[in-house]
Design brief:
- Helix 2 (about 40-50) crosses helix 3 (about 70-85).
- The mean pLDDT is about 95.
- Helices cover about 55% and strands about 5% of the residues.
- Strands 1-2 form a two-stranded parallel sheet.
- The chain starts with 7 loop residues before the first helix and ends with a helix.
- It has a single domain (about 10-120), classed as Rossmann fold, CATH 3.40.50.
- The radius of gyration is 17 Å and the shape is elongated.
- It has helices spanning about 10-25, 40-50, 70-85, 100-120; strands at about 55-60, 90.
- By secondary structure, it is mostly helical.
Length: about 120
Amino acid sequence: MDHGSVMPEANQTLLEVVRVLRESTGMAIVEPAHMELAEPTIAQAFTSCVEQGAKHVVIHPYFLSPGRHGTSDIPRMAAQAAADHPGTDVTVTEPLGVDPRISEVILLRIQEALVAKEARN
């Protein structure tokens, strides 16, 4: 799940992340959710997962770092969604955070930007 935006093109990124996760992992149930400002909400996505047969829902905040949302808002919203589905467990993961693999993505973005700049010159 991500924060959500009033700009549809911003929300499209999460749909791409979900598609990539489904394709790369083969996970049968992967649903997008937005914390606020857009749908599906966490509660709506949770319900969708349960309707597809999930007994344990894992919510991953697609955020770079923990903050109030990650430490307070999202766990609260996840617990509320789970309360509507007795017998279903919920786990909230840590955000992306600091991980050595993130440097690979950052380096790739830098290289892409430099190549694009060279192509324009």
